[in-house]
Design a protein that fits this description.
The protein is about 75% helix and about 0% strand. With about 260 residues, the protein is mainly alpha-helical. It is elongated, with a radius of gyration of 20 Å.
C-alpha cells in the first residue's frame, strides 16, 4: 500500500476509535453541550426583554429580535465548549500510555492526531445542530438566508471547529492531566463571553471594546450573523477566515511538534 493509503486507513481507524469513546462516555460531551443551551435559555427568557430594549435604540422590548441576535454567538460558543472535551481526550491519551503504545506500532504517526481532529469536528457539527434545534424551538428563524448563505454558514462553522480543535489538541498534549487540559482550554469558552455574542461591541465601555473586537470570535460571530440574518458582513468575513487559517496552522504546527518530540 502507498503511504497515502496507509495514512487514510490508519486515520479512519483512529477516527472510529475516538467516536466510539465519545459514544461510550457521553457525559463529558453532554455537560459541555448543556452550557450553551442553558445560556441560550437564560439570555432569551430571563434577560431577553431587557437586552432587546437596551439594543433597540428607543424601541420597545422585542424578544424575537434578541433571539435572532444571540443565536449565532451561542452556536460559536457551542464549538468552543465542545473542543474542551477534545483537549481532555488528548491529555488522557498522552498520560495513560496509549500514545507510547502507538509509537511502537506500524501505523501512520499523524493518524492519531487526525483521528482526534476529525472526530472533534464531527462532534462540533452535531452539537451545533442540537443547539440550533433548541434555538428554532424557542423561536429563532432565518427566513432571509439563501441556500448559498446557509452553505457558507455551515462551512464557516466547520472551519471554526477545525481551527479550535487544532488549538485544543495542542493544549491537551502539553497538559499533565485531564483537569489541567480542561483548565488550559477554558479560554475557548470564555472568549465568546467577551465578544459580540450577547451585545454589540459599540454598546460596551470604550476601554473594553478593543478586547471584544480584536479577537477571533467577534468577526466569526458577525459573519455568521450576517449569513443567517441577511445583514451586512463587511470586512468580518475575511477576518474570520484569516483567524481560522492562522489558528489552524498554529495549532497544527504546535500539535505536530509536541507529538513528534521524543518522550522523556
Amino acid at each position: 500500500m502507498s503511504s497515502l493509503s496507509l495514512a487514510v486507513r490508519d486515520s479512519n481507524t483512529m477516527l472510529r476509535r475516538n467516536l466510539l469513546h465519545a459514544r461510550r462516555y457521553p457525559s463529558l460531551t453532554l455537560n459541555l453541550l448543556l452550557t450553551p443551551i442553558v445560556l441560550l435559555l437564560l439570555f432569551v427568557y430571563v434577560f431577553g426583554d431587557v437586552m432587546s430594549a437596551g439594543m433597540g435604540g428607543g424601541g420597545g422590548a422585542d424578544r424575537s429580535a434578541y433571539i435572532a441576535y444571540v443565536v449565532p454567538g451561542i452556536l460559536m460558543m457551542t464549538i468552543g465548549g465542545t473542543v474542551v472535551g477534545t483537549a481532555v481526550s488528548v491529555s488522557n491519551d498522552m498520560t495513560e500510555g496509549i500514545i507510547a503504545r502507538f509509537r511502537t506500532m506500524a501505523i501512520h504517526r499523524g493518524s492519531v492526531l487526525i483521528g482526534h481532529v476529525v472526530g472533534s469536528v464531527l462532534q462540533c457539527i452535531a452539537s451545533v445542530v442540537l443547539v440550533g434545534a433548541v434555538a428554532v424551538a424557542i423561536g429563532f428563524r432565518s427566513t432571509d438566508a439563501t441556500a448559498l448563505e446557509w452553505l457558507a454558514a455551515l462551512g464557516l462553522l466547520a472551519l471554526v471547529a477545525l481551527a479550535l480543535t487544532w488549538i485544543a489538541v495542542g493544549m491537551g498534549m502539553i497538559s499533565p492531566n485531564a483537569e489541567a487540559a480542561s483548565n488550559n482550554a477554558l479560554p475557548l469558552v470564555v472568549l465568546p463571553l467577551i465578544s459580540s455574542a450577547f451585545v454589540p461591541v459599540d454598546a460596551m465601555p470604550g476601554w473594553f471594546q478593543p478586547i471584544a473586537e480584536y479577537q477571533p470570535f467577534t468577526p466569526a460571530i458577525e459573519t455568521l450573523r450576517g449569513l443567517l440574518l441577511g445583514t451586512e458582513i463587511g470586512h468580518n468575513g475575511w477576518l474570520a477566515v484569516a483567524w481560522c487559517l492562522a489558528l489552524s496552522a498554529l495549532g497544527y504546527a504546535w500539535s505536530k511538534s509536541t507529538f513528534n518530540r521524543d518522550p522523556k
